[in-house]
Protein backbone atom coordinates (compact mmCIF):
# COMPACT_ATOMS: atom_id res chain seq x y z
CA UNK A 1 0.00 0.00 0.00
CA UNK A 2 1.32 3.45 -0.91
CA UNK A 3 0.83 6.23 1.59
CA UNK A 4 1.60 9.88 0.98
CA UNK A 5 4.47 9.49 3.44
CA UNK A 6 5.79 6.01 2.80
CA UNK A 7 4.95 2.54 1.65
CA UNK A 8 3.79 -0.20 4.01
CA UNK A 9 2.10 -3.59 3.80
CA UNK A 10 -0.90 -4.45 6.02
CA UNK A 11 -0.44 -7.55 8.13
CA UNK A 12 -3.44 -9.65 9.15
CA UNK A 13 -2.41 -13.23 8.31
CA UNK A 14 0.76 -15.29 8.01
CA UNK A 15 0.77 -15.01 4.20
CA UNK A 16 1.34 -11.27 4.65
CA UNK A 17 4.82 -12.09 5.93
CA UNK A 18 5.99 -12.88 2.39
CA UNK A 19 7.37 -9.37 1.92
CA UNK A 20 9.45 -9.71 5.10
CA UNK A 21 10.71 -13.20 4.25
CA UNK A 22 11.79 -11.91 0.85
CA UNK A 23 13.60 -8.97 2.48
CA UNK A 24 15.44 -11.35 4.82
CA UNK A 25 16.78 -13.17 1.77
CA UNK A 26 19.86 -15.28 2.49
CA UNK A 27 20.74 -13.67 5.82
CA UNK A 28 22.38 -15.93 8.37
CA UNK A 29 21.05 -14.18 11.49
CA UNK A 30 17.56 -12.72 11.96
CA UNK A 31 16.86 -10.82 15.16
CA UNK A 32 13.22 -10.30 16.15
CA UNK A 33 12.59 -7.59 18.70
CA UNK A 34 9.79 -6.48 20.99
CA UNK A 35 8.86 -3.13 22.54
CA UNK A 36 7.90 -4.81 25.83
CA UNK A 37 8.43 -8.14 27.56
CA UNK A 38 4.70 -8.62 28.07
CA UNK A 39 2.82 -8.23 24.77
CA UNK A 40 1.02 -11.18 23.20
CA UNK A 41 1.20 -10.01 19.58
CA UNK A 42 4.98 -9.74 19.68
CA UNK A 43 5.34 -13.37 20.76
CA UNK A 44 2.68 -14.62 18.35
CA UNK A 45 4.10 -12.89 15.28
CA UNK A 46 7.69 -13.73 16.17
CA UNK A 47 6.52 -17.35 16.28
CA UNK A 48 4.90 -16.99 12.85
CA UNK A 49 8.08 -15.47 11.39
CA UNK A 50 10.27 -18.11 13.03
CA UNK A 51 8.17 -20.92 11.61
CA UNK A 52 8.59 -19.49 8.10
CA UNK A 53 12.33 -19.10 8.56
CA UNK A 54 12.69 -22.66 9.83
CA UNK A 55 10.48 -24.25 7.18
CA UNK A 56 11.41 -22.12 4.16
CA UNK A 57 14.99 -21.08 4.82
CA UNK A 58 16.50 -23.78 7.01
CA UNK A 59 17.10 -21.83 10.22
CA UNK A 60 18.32 -24.24 12.87
CA UNK A 61 17.70 -22.68 16.28
CA UNK A 62 16.07 -19.89 18.24
CA UNK A 63 18.17 -18.06 20.86
CA UNK A 64 16.29 -15.85 23.31
CA UNK A 65 16.77 -13.25 26.04
CA UNK A 66 16.58 -15.95 28.69
CA UNK A 67 18.97 -17.82 30.95
CA UNK A 68 20.96 -20.78 29.62
CA UNK A 69 20.03 -23.50 32.16
CA UNK A 70 16.27 -22.94 31.90
CA UNK A 71 16.26 -22.61 28.12
CA UNK A 72 18.43 -25.69 27.76
CA UNK A 73 15.75 -27.67 29.61
CA UNK A 74 13.29 -26.52 26.93
CA UNK A 75 15.84 -27.43 24.24
CA UNK A 76 16.02 -30.95 25.62
CA UNK A 77 12.23 -31.18 25.55
CA UNK A 78 11.74 -29.96 21.97
CA UNK A 79 14.42 -32.40 20.79
CA UNK A 80 12.84 -35.31 22.64
CA UNK A 81 15.88 -36.17 24.75
CA UNK A 82 15.49 -38.88 27.35
CA UNK A 83 13.86 -37.76 30.64
CA UNK A 84 13.23 -34.26 29.26
CA UNK A 85 9.57 -34.12 30.32
CA UNK A 86 6.20 -34.99 28.87
CA UNK A 87 3.97 -31.93 29.16
CA UNK A 88 4.85 -28.47 27.91
CA UNK A 89 3.34 -26.62 30.88
CA UNK A 90 5.39 -28.73 33.28
CA UNK A 91 8.60 -28.12 31.34
CA UNK A 92 7.98 -24.37 31.37
CA UNK A 93 7.83 -24.45 35.15
CA UNK A 94 11.62 -24.24 34.95
CA UNK A 95 11.14 -20.47 34.52
CA UNK A 96 10.78 -19.52 38.18
CA UNK A 97 13.06 -16.51 38.28
CA UNK A 98 11.25 -13.17 38.16
CA UNK A 99 10.01 -12.02 35.64
CA UNK A 100 8.49 -15.45 35.03
CA UNK A 101 5.98 -14.22 32.47
CA UNK A 102 8.67 -13.57 29.85
CA UNK A 103 9.00 -17.25 28.97
CA UNK A 104 6.44 -19.04 31.14
CA UNK A 105 3.43 -18.06 29.06
CA UNK A 106 0.96 -19.69 26.70
CA UNK A 107 2.39 -17.97 23.64
CA UNK A 108 5.78 -19.59 24.29
CA UNK A 109 4.02 -22.89 25.01
CA UNK A 110 2.53 -22.75 21.49
CA UNK A 111 6.00 -22.14 20.01
CA UNK A 112 7.50 -25.01 22.02
CA UNK A 113 4.72 -27.35 20.91
CA UNK A 114 5.29 -26.45 17.26
CA UNK A 115 9.08 -26.97 17.47
CA UNK A 116 8.64 -30.34 19.19
CA UNK A 117 6.19 -31.49 16.50
CA UNK A 118 8.50 -30.19 13.76
CA UNK A 119 11.43 -32.11 15.27
CA UNK A 120 9.54 -35.34 15.86
CA UNK A 121 10.61 -37.34 12.79
CA UNK A 122 13.93 -35.58 12.16
CA UNK A 123 17.43 -36.85 12.82
CA UNK A 124 19.18 -35.41 15.88
CA UNK A 125 21.44 -33.18 13.80
CA UNK A 126 18.41 -31.73 11.96
CA UNK A 127 16.31 -30.88 15.01
CA UNK A 128 15.62 -27.20 15.76
CA UNK A 129 17.05 -25.98 19.07
CA UNK A 130 16.02 -23.45 21.71
CA UNK A 131 18.70 -21.68 23.77
CA UNK A 132 19.18 -18.81 26.22
CA UNK A 133 21.62 -15.98 25.63
CA UNK A 134 21.46 -14.15 28.95
CA UNK A 135 23.93 -13.89 31.82
CA UNK A 136 21.88 -13.75 35.03
CA UNK A 137 22.02 -17.43 36.03
CA UNK A 138 25.23 -17.37 38.08
CA UNK A 139 24.14 -19.85 40.75
CA UNK A 140 22.16 -22.19 38.52
CA UNK A 141 25.02 -22.40 36.01
CA UNK A 142 27.55 -23.13 38.74
CA UNK A 143 25.37 -25.95 40.03
CA UNK A 144 24.90 -27.39 36.54
CA UNK A 145 28.67 -27.44 35.95
CA UNK A 146 29.36 -29.06 39.31
CA UNK A 147 26.66 -31.70 38.88
CA UNK A 148 27.87 -32.68 35.43
CA UNK A 149 31.61 -32.61 36.10
CA UNK A 150 31.33 -34.69 39.28
CA UNK A 151 30.19 -37.49 36.99
CA UNK A 152 32.84 -36.93 34.34
CA UNK A 153 36.05 -35.19 35.33
CA UNK A 154 37.52 -35.04 38.83
CA UNK A 155 39.87 -32.09 38.29
CA UNK A 156 37.19 -29.96 36.63
CA UNK A 157 34.74 -30.94 39.38
CA UNK A 158 37.18 -29.71 42.03
CA UNK A 159 37.52 -26.40 40.19
CA UNK A 160 33.71 -26.12 40.13
CA UNK A 161 33.50 -26.92 43.86
CA UNK A 162 36.09 -24.20 44.58
CA UNK A 163 33.95 -21.68 42.66
CA UNK A 164 30.82 -22.70 44.54
CA UNK A 165 32.63 -22.43 47.89
CA UNK A 166 33.83 -18.95 46.99
CA UNK A 167 30.26 -17.74 46.42
CA UNK A 168 28.67 -19.55 49.39
CA UNK A 169 29.23 -16.73 51.93
CA UNK A 170 26.97 -14.49 49.83
CA UNK A 171 23.92 -16.75 50.29
CA UNK A 172 23.06 -17.13 46.59
CA UNK A 173 22.50 -13.38 46.33
CA UNK A 174 24.45 -11.73 43.49
CA UNK A 175 23.60 -8.27 44.83
CA UNK A 176 25.22 -9.10 48.18
CA UNK A 177 28.25 -10.42 46.29
CA UNK A 178 28.45 -7.30 44.11
CA UNK A 179 28.19 -4.96 47.10
CA UNK A 180 30.79 -6.88 49.10
CA UNK A 181 33.34 -6.90 46.30
CA UNK A 182 32.81 -3.20 45.68
CA UNK A 183 34.39 -2.37 49.05
CA UNK A 184 36.72 -5.31 49.61
CA UNK A 185 39.25 -6.24 46.89
CA UNK A 186 38.40 -9.93 47.15
CA UNK A 187 36.19 -11.64 44.62
CA UNK A 188 35.56 -14.98 42.93
CA UNK A 189 36.86 -14.03 39.51
CA UNK A 190 39.89 -16.33 39.64
CA UNK A 191 37.77 -19.29 40.76
CA UNK A 192 35.26 -19.06 37.92
CA UNK A 193 37.97 -18.46 35.32
CA UNK A 194 39.90 -21.53 36.54
CA UNK A 195 36.68 -23.53 36.42
CA UNK A 196 36.11 -22.49 32.81
CA UNK A 197 39.70 -23.45 31.93
CA UNK A 198 39.31 -26.90 33.47
CA UNK A 199 35.91 -27.52 31.89
CA UNK A 200 37.28 -26.48 28.49
CA UNK A 201 40.01 -29.14 28.81
CA UNK A 202 37.55 -31.92 29.56
CA UNK A 203 37.55 -35.06 27.37
CA UNK A 204 34.99 -35.16 24.59
CA UNK A 205 32.10 -37.59 24.95
CA UNK A 206 30.78 -38.19 21.42
CA UNK A 207 27.61 -39.87 22.70
CA UNK A 208 26.34 -36.57 24.14
CA UNK A 209 27.97 -33.68 22.28
CA UNK A 210 25.33 -31.08 23.05
CA UNK A 211 25.46 -31.67 26.79
CA UNK A 212 29.21 -31.12 26.67
CA UNK A 213 28.59 -27.81 24.91
CA UNK A 214 26.02 -26.91 27.56
CA UNK A 215 28.47 -27.58 30.38
CA UNK A 216 31.06 -25.26 28.86
CA UNK A 217 28.37 -22.65 28.27
CA UNK A 218 27.30 -22.78 31.92
CA UNK A 219 30.93 -22.23 32.92
CA UNK A 220 31.13 -19.26 30.57
CA UNK A 221 27.90 -17.87 32.04
CA UNK A 222 29.43 -18.08 35.53
CA UNK A 223 32.53 -16.18 34.39
CA UNK A 224 30.57 -13.42 32.69
CA UNK A 225 27.85 -13.26 35.37
CA UNK A 226 30.50 -12.66 38.02
CA UNK A 227 31.92 -9.89 35.83
CA UNK A 228 28.42 -8.49 35.21
CA UNK A 229 27.47 -8.23 38.88
CA UNK A 230 30.72 -6.50 39.80
CA UNK A 231 30.22 -4.05 36.92
CA UNK A 232 26.60 -3.46 37.97
CA UNK A 233 27.56 -2.09 41.38
CA UNK A 234 29.83 0.48 39.73
CA UNK A 235 27.02 1.84 37.56
CA UNK A 236 27.32 3.30 34.08
CA UNK A 237 27.35 1.38 30.82
CA UNK A 238 29.73 -1.35 31.97
CA UNK A 239 27.22 -3.96 33.08
CA UNK A 240 25.05 -3.45 29.98
CA UNK A 241 28.06 -3.97 27.73
CA UNK A 242 29.19 -7.07 29.65
CA UNK A 243 25.72 -8.54 29.22
CA UNK A 244 25.41 -7.89 25.48
CA UNK A 245 28.99 -8.99 24.85
CA UNK A 246 28.11 -12.28 26.55
CA UNK A 247 25.00 -12.61 24.38
CA UNK A 248 27.06 -12.08 21.23
CA UNK A 249 29.72 -14.53 22.39
CA UNK A 250 27.02 -17.12 23.05
CA UNK A 251 25.48 -16.56 19.62
CA UNK A 252 28.91 -16.99 18.04
CA UNK A 253 29.45 -20.24 19.93
CA UNK A 254 26.03 -21.58 18.91
CA UNK A 255 26.60 -20.80 15.24
CA UNK A 256 30.03 -22.44 15.34
CA UNK A 257 28.65 -25.48 17.16
CA UNK A 258 25.87 -25.97 14.60
CA UNK A 259 28.23 -25.80 11.63
CA UNK A 260 29.27 -23.47 8.82
CA UNK A 261 25.80 -23.36 7.28
CA UNK A 262 23.96 -22.69 10.54
CA UNK A 263 21.33 -19.94 10.67
CA UNK A 264 20.09 -18.32 13.87
CA UNK A 265 16.88 -16.61 14.98
CA UNK A 266 17.23 -14.29 17.98
CA UNK A 267 14.35 -13.09 20.17
CA UNK A 268 15.19 -10.09 22.35
CA UNK A 269 13.93 -6.64 23.30
CA UNK A 270 14.30 -3.87 20.72
CA UNK A 271 16.91 -2.27 22.98
CA UNK A 272 19.15 -5.28 22.39
CA UNK A 273 18.50 -6.15 18.75
CA UNK A 274 18.08 -2.64 17.31
CA UNK A 275 21.52 -1.27 16.37
CA UNK A 276 22.60 0.89 19.33
CA UNK A 277 24.65 3.21 17.12
CA UNK A 278 21.42 4.81 15.91
CA UNK A 279 20.07 5.65 19.38
CA UNK A 280 21.23 7.74 22.32
CA UNK A 281 22.69 4.56 23.82
CA UNK A 282 25.84 5.25 21.79
CA UNK A 283 26.24 8.62 23.55
CA UNK A 284 26.48 6.75 26.84
CA UNK A 285 29.11 4.33 25.55
CA UNK A 286 26.68 1.44 25.22
CA UNK A 287 26.49 -1.15 22.46
CA UNK A 288 24.24 -4.17 21.94
CA UNK A 289 24.00 -7.54 20.24
CA UNK A 290 22.34 -6.10 17.13
CA UNK A 291 25.27 -3.74 16.57
CA UNK A 292 27.86 -6.41 17.37
CA UNK A 293 26.27 -8.91 14.99
CA UNK A 294 26.20 -6.41 12.13
CA UNK A 295 29.84 -5.56 12.76
CA UNK A 296 30.86 -9.21 12.93
CA UNK A 297 28.82 -10.77 10.11
CA UNK A 298 27.99 -7.81 7.87
CA UNK A 299 24.69 -6.03 7.32
CA UNK A 300 23.68 -8.29 4.45
CA UNK A 301 23.96 -11.33 6.75
CA UNK A 302 22.10 -9.85 9.73
CA UNK A 303 18.49 -8.64 9.57
CA UNK A 304 17.10 -6.67 12.50
CA UNK A 305 13.30 -6.55 12.85
CA UNK A 306 11.76 -4.16 15.38
CA UNK A 307 8.27 -4.41 16.88
CA UNK A 308 5.99 -1.78 18.39
CA UNK A 309 2.41 -0.73 19.10
CA UNK A 310 0.31 2.36 19.72
CA UNK A 311 -1.91 1.44 22.68
CA UNK A 312 -3.49 -1.47 24.57
CA UNK A 313 -2.37 -3.30 27.70
CA UNK A 314 0.75 -5.13 28.81
CA UNK A 315 2.00 -7.49 31.51
CA UNK A 316 4.67 -5.88 33.71
CA UNK A 317 5.48 -5.08 37.35
CA UNK A 318 5.50 -1.86 39.36
CA UNK A 319 8.96 -2.54 40.80
CA UNK A 320 11.72 -5.15 40.75
CA UNK A 321 10.42 -8.49 41.98
CA UNK A 322 6.86 -7.23 42.41
CA UNK A 323 3.89 -9.36 41.29
CA UNK A 324 3.05 -9.27 37.61
CA UNK A 325 -0.09 -7.40 36.59
CA UNK A 326 -1.95 -6.33 33.47
CA UNK A 327 -1.54 -2.60 32.96
CA UNK A 328 -3.15 -0.21 30.52
CA UNK A 329 -0.69 1.09 27.93
CA UNK A 330 -1.76 4.62 26.94
CA UNK A 331 -1.68 5.96 23.40
CA UNK A 332 1.85 6.65 22.27
CA UNK A 333 3.38 10.02 22.93
CA UNK A 334 2.78 12.70 20.31
CA UNK A 335 5.70 13.00 17.92
CA UNK A 336 6.85 9.43 18.52
CA UNK A 337 7.38 6.74 15.88
CA UNK A 338 4.30 4.89 17.11
CA UNK A 339 2.17 8.04 17.07
CA UNK A 340 3.30 8.71 13.52
CA UNK A 341 2.35 5.20 12.38
CA UNK A 342 -1.07 5.45 14.05
CA UNK A 343 -1.67 8.76 12.32
CA UNK A 344 -0.93 7.25 8.92
CA UNK A 345 -3.45 4.45 9.43
CA UNK A 346 -4.73 2.11 12.13
CA UNK A 347 -3.66 -0.90 10.05
CA UNK A 348 -1.27 -3.41 11.57
CA UNK A 349 1.63 -3.17 9.18
CA UNK A 350 5.09 -4.19 8.00
CA UNK A 351 7.48 -1.41 7.05
CA UNK A 352 10.78 -2.03 5.29
CA UNK A 353 13.58 0.36 6.15
CA UNK A 354 14.60 0.69 2.53
CA UNK A 355 11.25 2.41 1.92
CA UNK A 356 11.99 5.01 4.60
CA UNK A 357 15.29 6.31 3.28
CA UNK A 358 13.75 9.22 1.34
CA UNK A 359 11.77 10.63 4.29
CA UNK A 360 13.79 13.53 5.76
CA UNK A 361 12.29 13.52 9.28
CA UNK A 362 13.24 9.85 9.70
CA UNK A 363 16.91 10.50 9.02
CA UNK A 364 17.16 12.11 12.46
CA UNK A 365 16.23 10.79 15.87
CA UNK A 366 12.59 10.55 16.90
CA UNK A 367 11.15 9.06 20.13
CA UNK A 368 10.52 5.30 19.95
CA UNK A 369 8.65 3.51 22.76
CA UNK A 370 10.41 0.94 24.96
CA UNK A 371 8.69 -0.77 27.92
CA UNK A 372 10.66 -2.99 30.28
CA UNK A 373 9.64 -5.49 32.95
CA UNK A 374 9.16 -2.55 35.35
CA UNK A 375 6.57 -0.09 34.08
CA UNK A 376 4.43 2.81 35.29
CA UNK A 377 1.94 3.97 32.64
CA UNK A 378 1.42 7.29 34.47
CA UNK A 379 5.10 8.14 34.07
CA UNK A 380 5.47 6.92 30.49
CA UNK A 381 5.61 10.35 28.88
CA UNK A 382 8.61 11.21 31.08
CA UNK A 383 10.55 8.15 29.93
CA UNK A 384 10.11 4.89 28.01
CA UNK A 385 11.11 6.51 24.70
CA UNK A 386 14.47 5.98 23.02
CA UNK A 387 15.64 8.60 20.48
CA UNK A 388 16.06 6.51 17.32
CA UNK A 389 17.01 6.82 13.66
CA UNK A 390 14.47 4.21 12.58
CA UNK A 391 15.72 3.26 9.06
CA UNK A 392 19.22 2.58 10.35
CA UNK A 393 18.38 0.95 13.66
CA UNK A 394 16.25 -1.74 11.96
CA UNK A 395 15.94 -3.42 8.57
CA UNK A 396 12.18 -3.83 9.01
CA UNK A 397 9.48 -2.98 11.54
CA UNK A 398 6.20 -4.65 12.53
CA UNK A 399 3.59 -2.28 13.95
CA UNK A 400 0.38 -3.23 15.76
CA UNK A 401 -2.13 -0.50 16.49
CA UNK A 402 -3.60 -2.10 19.61
CA UNK A 403 -2.05 -4.95 21.57
CA UNK A 404 -2.91 -7.28 24.47
CA UNK A 405 -0.82 -8.51 27.36
CA UNK A 406 0.89 -11.87 27.13
CA UNK A 407 -0.86 -14.79 28.90
CA UNK A 408 1.30 -15.95 31.84
CA UNK A 409 1.21 -19.41 33.37
CA UNK A 410 1.02 -17.75 36.83
CA UNK A 411 3.81 -19.56 38.61
CA UNK A 412 5.40 -18.78 41.94
CA UNK A 413 8.39 -16.49 41.56
CA UNK A 414 11.76 -17.71 42.78
CA UNK A 415 13.54 -14.98 44.72
CA UNK A 416 16.11 -12.99 42.82
CA UNK A 417 17.19 -9.47 43.71
CA UNK A 418 20.09 -9.20 41.31
CA UNK A 419 18.71 -6.58 38.89
CA UNK A 420 17.81 -3.99 41.56
CA UNK A 421 20.88 -1.88 40.91
CA UNK A 422 20.59 -2.35 37.17
CA UNK A 423 19.38 0.96 35.64
CA UNK A 424 17.86 -0.54 32.49
CA UNK A 425 15.03 -3.07 32.71
CA UNK A 426 15.15 -4.54 29.21
From TrEMBL:
Which Pfam families does the UniProt record give?
Erythro_esteras (PF05139)
Recorded hits in InterPro entries, A to Z, give: Emycin_Estase, Hydrolase/PRTase-associated, UCP036794_erythomycin
Which PANTHER family does the entry mention? Answer: ESTERASE, PUTATIVE (AFU_ORTHOLOGUE AFUA_1G05850)-RELATED
Q: Any idea what this protein is called?
A: Erythromycin esterase family protein
Q: What is the lineage of its organism?
A: Bacteria, Pseudomonadati, Bacteroidota, Cytophagia, Cytophagales
Amino acid sequence: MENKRFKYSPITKEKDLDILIEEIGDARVVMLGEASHGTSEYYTWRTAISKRLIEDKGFGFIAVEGDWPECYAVNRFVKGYQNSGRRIAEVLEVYRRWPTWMWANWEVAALVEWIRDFNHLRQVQDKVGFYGLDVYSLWESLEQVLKYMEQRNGKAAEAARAAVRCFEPFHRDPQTYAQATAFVPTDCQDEVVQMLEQVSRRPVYPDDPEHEFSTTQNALVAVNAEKYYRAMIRGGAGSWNVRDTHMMETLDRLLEFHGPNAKAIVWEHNTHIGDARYTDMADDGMFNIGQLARERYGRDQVKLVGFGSYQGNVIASRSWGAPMQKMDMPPAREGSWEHMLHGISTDDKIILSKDLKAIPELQQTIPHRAIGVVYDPKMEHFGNYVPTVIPDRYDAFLYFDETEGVHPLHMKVRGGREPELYPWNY
